[in-house]
Amino acid sequence: MTNMVVLGLILLIIGLLASIPVLTTIGLILLVVGLILNFVPVGGNRRRVW
Length: 50
Hints:
The chain has 50 residues and is mainly alpha-helical. The chain is 70% helix and 0% strand. It contains 2 helices and no strands.
């Protein structure tokens, strides 16, 4: 999940620097989806600290 956030951030930066709107859009989508998946437990798993 964290890899998706890092990849989205890299694509977003490259897209902004090279002014390629497709990379910026894909990077933004990956960043948002990665952050959502990081904070929402997938498959009903609860993060418990014993």
